[in-house]
Design goal:
Layout lengths: L1 H15 L7 E5 L6 E3 H4 E7 L14 E5 L2 E6 L5 E6 L4 E5 L1 E2 L5 E2 L4 E5 L4 E6 L3 E6 L4 E6 L8 E5 L2 E5 L11 E4 L5 E5 L17 E4 L2 E6 L4 E4 L8 E6 L12 H6 L5 E9 L2 E8 L2 E8 L5 E7 L7 E3 L2 E6 L1 H5 L7 E3 L12 E7 L4
Parallel strand pairs: 1-21, 2-25, 3-28, 8-9
Antiparallel strand pairs: 3-29, 4-5, 5-6, 6-7, 10-11, 11-12, 12-13, 14-15, 15-16, 16-17, 18-19, 19-20, 20-21, 22-23, 23-24, 24-25, 26-27, 27-29
Length: 360
């Protein structure tokens, strides 16, 4: 009964977000047709190996941005800073450092690049930004809010957008919109009536596509297009055969113990007006490709492993694989090495670059 009430509340805020109901739609994911292999969806796999030395070794690629012929890589947990590599995989420099001195922070949650100002902005706990130039020189820091916890950030032409991801205080909005000087302009999108205790599974909840901000709410399976303006945003809510409410995510231990019973998204990224996503349907991994213009969709069971999309740029997706995965020869796909650095067991993580196949 309680989960039914929560689902009704979700639908109410979904349809109240915009007066024009034609902008809102629900896509049912219950009709899953056949199986799809990795090479039926993607092609042209390439490995980008990165220079590895005592000065630049890191643990994981938690986020990646391709900009100005360089790779900006966030290692969020082990080294807690940004590593910058040239297009050929050669190491350039780092940005940010843990500590208590000027330009230093205790944690790092996310980062973005302001292409207009040529600056890199690191979001840290609690809801504070550290601003650097692209060479890594510290400029300033600014506290954004005392009452809300912000976990993701993206820069766009008019400013910045940060998301709470349902993890902040109850009744907080999902998105906080700031101008270029980090003055708060707007708070938008209604949250669930309770707090979620862990971060979303999708790698990029916030995504800049052209001039629009896309936000994927993992815990209500909802995609918001042009999300900075609640009165104008387009909304797509994805529903399952046995609809799950956001309430299943309230208890972390309970969720992971019973996750095989649930349906939820694990990855979602927009590329050329198509949403490429992966979701779990009661323990089975599924692929979703949804055209945002034609509203056509293809849903199938995923045959084998799927890369977790970190970034999309210039017709290519970017993900990450470990050196051991490559050296152990899992043969998940055929890929060529396009940089000059050898891949060894103790090398840095490897960037995986690939393209989408035509759906025609």
């Amino acid at each position: 009964m309680k989960s039914t009430i929560v689902y009704i509340l979700m639908l109410l805020f979904f349809f109240s977000c915009k007066g024009n109901a034609e902008k809102n739609m629900i896509l049912n994911l219950s009709e899953i047709n056949g199986q799809t292999s990795l090479d039926e969806i993607y092609k042209d796999f390439e490995y980008i190996s990165l220079e590895t030395s005592e000065n630049n070794i890191f643990g994981a690629i938690d986020k990646l941005i391709v900009y100005d012929n360089k790779y900006f890589i966030l290692d969020k947990t082990r080294m807690k800073k940004i590593y910058v590599f040239h297009e050929d995989g050669a190491f350039s420099h780092t940005i940010g450092e843990t500590g208590s001195g000027p330009g230093e922070y205790t944690s790092i949650e996310d980062f973005t690049i302001d292409m207009e100002k040529k600056q890199l902005v690191i979001l840290t706990y609690p809801s504070t930004v550290f601003i650097y130039n692209l060479n890594g020189d510290f400029i300033r820091k600014q506290h954004l809010t005392s009452n809300s916890m912000l976990w993701n950030i993206v820069s766009y032409t008019d400013g910045y957008v940060c998301s709470t991801n349902q993890q902040s205080a109850i009744n907080d909005k999902l998105l906080f919109v700031f101008d270029k000087e980090f003055v708060l302009k707007n708070e938008t999108l209604e949250p669930l009536p309770f707090q979620i205790a862990f971060p979303p599974f999708v790698s990029t909840p916030l995504q800049l596509v052209g001039s629009q901000i896309y936000y994927f709410d993992n815990f209500t399976s909802t995609l918001y297009v042009d999300a900075t303006n609640q009165s104008e945003c387009d909304i797509v809510q994805f529903s399952f055969e046995e609809q799950v409410s956001g309430e299943i995510f309230k208890d972390v231990q309970q969720f992971f113990m019973n996750q095989h019973e649930y349906c939820f998204f694990t990855d979602a990224i927009v590329a050329d007006n198509v949403l490429y996503a992966t979701f779990i349907n009661k323990g089975k991994q599924c692929d979703l490709r949804f055209n945002l213009q034609t509203k056509e969709s293809k849903i199938s069971y995923a045959e084998g492993w799927r890369p977790k999309a970190l970034f999309y740029h210039g017709s290519s997706f970017y993900s990450s694989v470990s050196p051991s995965m490559i050296l152990e020869g899992d043969n998940l796909f055929e890929a060529k090495l396009i940089t000059r650095f050898p891949i060894e067991i103790d090398s840095n993580p490897v960037i995986l670059k690939y393209k989408a196949k035509s759906r025609s």
